[in-house]
Design goal:
There is one protein chain. Strands 1, 2, 3, 4, 5, 6, 7, 8, 9 and 10 form a 10-stranded mixed beta sheet that branches. Strands 11-12 form a two-stranded antiparallel ribbon. It has 2 domains: 197 residues, no CATH class; 86 residues, no CATH class. By secondary structure, the chain is an alpha+beta fold. The two termini are 31 Å apart. A hairpin with a 3-residue loop joins strand 1 and strand 2. Helices cover 34% and strands 27% of the residues.
């Protein structure tokens, strides 16, 4: 499952959730619109997948709410969940809905939440094949804001915040689709935060575009190598951040002693057991040569 994320408008990152790997990145000029060449980026991600592996699911925010992307997903049989743009026509449609038409959204524990949903069908631009649209309504707390931006993924009116998800997951309930799309932030974006915070991707070193692009590529490569390493560590490290791995493994305390003309490294018992687990796990892994 591919999740496309944006960190500001000039960094675009795609993540394969099942293996925690970044499959493609794009470093662009700061004034580039988030909507620019998104379909081309998705196709590049598909081409980076291993031979025989096909993209089946796509999650992306409102920058990906484009006719070309939905056409591509339908053509390639890719199930999608895309944050819809609250256009003027969609806002007018929502304002005409009656209270009884809204259904309660269920939480993970099967209890009702304060969010409500409404399901309908919708089309985009000149593409005549309709898709499912899940409209979300959440009570707004605090001061009401006037939102006149029709390119936004949400708007506020009458004490509620409205969002919508364009999707092809017709067999799923509204609650399941909302939860599945919400995992974009809960799981995928948290992984990208590791790239930004733990591997220096949040701040660029200089004002030169080419140098910054190279730096960001190095950050991404470092993160990918770390994820590969983490997958071969004991299970307790499967979700650990880089800092935790550094403190528990790289910075492991030890004492170097010399005895009978031999040097020995003495570790605490729990550290010795940890290293033994790591070594045994690496030994069991079958490494494949890059060149035959």
């Amino acid at each position: 499952m591919l999740c496309v994320l944006y960190d500001n408008s000039y960094r675009r990152v795609s993540c394969i959730l099942e293996i925690n790997h970044i499959i493609e990145t794009d470093f662009r000029e700061g004034n580039t619109s988030p909507k620019t060449e998104n379909l081309e980026f998705i196709k590049k991600c598909e081409s980076n997948l291993p031979k025989g592996v096909k993209l089946k699911y796509l999650r992306i925010d409102c920058a990906g709410y484009q006719e070309s992307i939905i056409r591509h997903c339908d053509k390639e049989n890719i199930h999608f969940a895309i944050r819809a743009i609250m256009s003027k026509s969609l806002r007018n449609y929502i304002n005409k809905l009656d209270e009884i038409q809204w259904d309660s959204v269920m939480k993970s524990d099967s209890s009702e939440s304060t969010m409500c949903s409404y399901r309908t069908t919708h089309t985009i631009a000149d593409y005549i094949i309709p898709f499912t649209l899940i409209i979300q309504r959440t009570p707004k707390s605090g001061q009401q804001q006037l939102d006149l931006n029709e390119n936004s993924g949400e708007f506020e009116t009458n004490g509620y915040t409205y969002r919508a998800i364009a999707t092809s997951l017709d067999s799923m309930s509204d609650s399941e689709i909302i939860k599945w799309y919400g995992m974009r932030a809960e799981k995928s974006e948290n992984k990208i935060k590791e790239l930004m915070l733990d591997f220096g991707g949040a701040h660029m070193p200089c004002g030169q575009f080419e140098a910054n692009a190279l730096y960001f590529s190095i950050c991404t490569l470092s993160y990918s190598l770390f994820v590969m390493l983490r997958n071969h560590l004991p299970d307790e490290f499967r979700k650990s951040r880089a800092k935790a791995v550094r403190l528990r493994i790289y910075a492991m305390a030890a004492k170097l002693i010399k005895h009978s003309r031999e040097y020995k490294l003495k570790l605490q018992k729990f550290n010795n057991n940890l290293l033994a687990q790591i070594i045994n796990k690496i030994k069991r892994y079958q490494f494949h040569p890059v060149l035959e």
